[in-house]
Write a structure and sequence with these properties.
- There is one protein chain.
- Helix content is 51%, strand content 6%.
- It contains 19 helices and seven strands.
- It has a four-stranded antiparallel sheet.
- A hairpin with a 4-residue loop joins β5 and β6.
- α10 runs antiparallel to α15.
- It binds s-citryldethia Coenzyme A.
- The site of s-citryldethia Coenzyme A has 23 residues, from α18.
Length: 444
């Protein structure tokens, strides 16, 4: 290995500044082209590496590997920047709404008022489920985790809509986008109603996206339901902030599954499953469970020490990020929104919020977290708002999935319409047994 390292010499080609020159141990020389995007780090195109040098790159978890070219979202982890199609998320959070952000992510530009009205009308009229789909909920146990239900029922959409799924047909790609964005809230609410034992509530076409979700979640046939505008506004902002995030784990899963040409509904179901993990979208549920376990500010020190202990698998949920080595801009916006929502809803949950803020202060002043640039991420505060809205912890990642659904669809569309696209199929470093002959059982 040392030999390889001594020989290995990678340097910018002083002549053209657009390639790395690679010299491998046996003296083979080649150039690896450098490509620049609109902004952000350059990439080194290593496509020729195996052919020229017989070696793979090795980057478990893809920490420094670009899997594709994309126009959709840009993140600068050092500066805490997040842009959807070039628009800073802070500006979209201040001036836009989730339906407009859906149009932006899907189409690349902000809509005209007619385009937005037409899109919103289309989404409203795709919120109902095929009645046969409702039978799936009768098969789940009453306490089935809503993420398991969401993944299963979204996967079943590939059975219901298999006919209109010619991925090369732009109309079919549009119908797929509308159905995913419109029907996920209905499926999510149905999963929640199963857990509560209450009857399923049908969507209403006279309501906007967030109002409709709230009434499907919390209305009961026995009495009228009054939608709280603060709750609706808070949800809309949370969906904007969760809508997309470049090549995160669940989005990469959707791209990978879709790259084989699989039915896109099943690719979205795969993305939902990937999001569920506590290292990813499942963290918002894990944060509330962690805060409940900490219980009181007097216990914070003990849990911070646990998080630092390498022999203890406990991590501070809602802290750290693969890309953000500064504040997650979404966490900053959500923290500010916490105040407004808790005040407006006159919620006594402030002890939870106070505990979260104290935990944040203690962690941010601790060298372990500072040295590793571990800051609160999008999941640290979002659960406090969901809880204040009366949404149970088990539904937090489902809410994340509702926001991220448009990002998954936008990336699937970008991947499937790439003329240079190919099936995603990484290689490996093999460390298993060397070739050996079969031994008959009598000889073992
Ligand atoms: C999301 O990718 C995305 O964009 C995701 C997301 C999106 O919008 O799609 O932003 C949403 O998933 C946010 C992240 C939610 N997950 C959590 O909050 C779970 C807790 N966080 C960690 O599991 C962790 O920070 C990750 C998974 C988020 C990031 O892990 P990395 O990039 O693989 O970094 P790492 O695990 O190698 O950590 C580097 C160091 C390690 O210590 P050392 O080996 O250097 O001594 O930091 C430590 C880690 O042990 N560390 C933590 C920690 N996070 C990292 N230590 C304690 N508590 C933590 N939360």
């Amino acid at each position: 290995m040392l030999l390889w390292f001594e020989y290995r010499e990678i340097q910018r080609n002083v002549m053209s500044q657009d390639a790395y020159r690679l010299i491998s141990p046996n003296g083979t020389e080649s150039e690896l082209p450098v490509r620049s995007g609109t902004t952000g780090p350059d990439v080194v195109d290593i496509a020729s590496l195996y052919k020229e040098h017989g070696a793979f790159t090795y980057d478990p978890g893809f920490v420094a590997t670009g899997s594709c070219e994309s126009d959709i979202t840009f993140i600068d982890g050092e500066k805490g920047v997040l842009m959807y199609r070039g628009y800073p998320v802070e500006q979209l959070a201040a001036h836009s709404n989730f339906m407009e952000v859906c149009w932006l992510l899907l189409n690349g530009d902000l809509p005209t008022s007619d385009e937005l009205a037409g899109f919103e009308n289309t989404i409203r009229r795709h919120t109902m489920l095929n009645e046969g789909m409702l039978n799936f909920f009768k098969g789940f146990r009453y306490d089935a985790h809503p993420m398991a239900q969401l993944s299963a029922v979204v996967g079943s959409m590939s059975a219901y809509y298999h006919a209109e799924m010619d991925a090369s047909n732009p109309k079919h790609r549009d119908i797929f986008a509308h159905r995913i964005i419109a029907k996920l809230p209905t499926i999510a609410a149905a999963a929640y109603k199963l857990n509560t034992g209450q009857p399923f509530i049908y969507p209403r076409n006279d309501l906007n996206y967030c109002d409709n979700l709230l009434q499907m979640l919390f209305a009961v046939p026995a009495e009228p339901y009054e939608i709280n505008p603060v709750a609706s506004e808070a949800l809309d902002l949370l969906f904007i902030l969760h809508a997309d995030h470049e090549q995160n784990c669940s989005t990469s899963t959707v791209r990978m599954a879709g790259s084989s040409g699989a039915n896109p509904y099943s690719a979205i179901a795969a993305g939902i499953s990937a999001l569920w993990g506590p290292a990813h979208g499942g963290a918002n549920e894990a944060v509330l469970n962690m805060l409940d376990e900490i219980g009181d500010v007097s216990q914070i020190g003990k849990f911070v020490e646990k998080a630092k202990d390498k022999d203890d698998p406990f991590r501070l949920m809602g802290f750290g990020h693969r890309v953000y080595k500064n504040f997650d801009p979404r966490a900053t916006i959500i923290r500010e929104m916490c105040h407004k929502v808790l005040d407006a809803l006159d919620k006594e949950d402030t002890p939870l919020f106070d505990l979260a803020r104290e935990l944040e202060q203690v962690a941010l002043s601790d060298d372990y977290f500072k040295e590793r640039n571990l800051y609160p991420n999008v999941d640290f505060y979002s659960g406090i708002i969901y809880k204040a809205l009366g949404i149970p912890t088990s539904m937090f990642t489902v809410m994340f999935a509702l926001g991220r659904s448009v990002g998954w669809v936008a990336h699937w569309r970008e991947m499937i319409s790439d003329p240079k696209g190919k099936i995603a199929r990484p290689r490996q470093l093999y460390t298993g047994a060397a070739a050996r002959d079969y031994a008959l059982i009598a000889d073992r």
